[in-house]
Amino acid sequence: MPDIVxxxxxxFESELLRHALKRVGVSKAIRFFSQGEHAISYLxxxxxxxxxxxxxxxxxxxxxxxxxxxxLQMLEELKQIPALAKSLKIVISNLDDTQSIKRAYAAxxxxxxxxxxxxxxxxxxxxxxxxxxSLSREEGNGKAATV
Length: 147
What we know:
Number of helices: 5
Radius of gyration: 15 Å
Number of strands: 5
Largest sheet: 5 strands, parallel
Structural class: alpha/beta
Order of helices and strands: EHEHEHEHEH
Strand content: 15-25%
Distance between the termini: 24 Å
């Protein structure tokens, strides 16, 4: 059952993010989408019918520049789904102008991070929003992974 949804049209960027999550010890299941429309359909199904097998994710990473539905449009759609109100919405983008960042926050993002999202940025996110992440245990000693 995915606890993290990544909406990113670049397979390379998706893979970088997946590897970075793994390296910092995030152990939640991940579901990928390359188009906003498909992600919205999936998220609506989970929100409308918890028994559907489409769980409401704890964390949603959203690329700003997607084919078809943009990241801003996705955020506006997500605001209309009450079951997703507590999901952490993280915008990932190579846009870094103030206007884009302000628009993302106004549309419902809780944070905005640049691409590529590396390990140090992920550690900062984990520290900023600790309740959303499940961290794996280091093998053999039972201690939580260092983040």
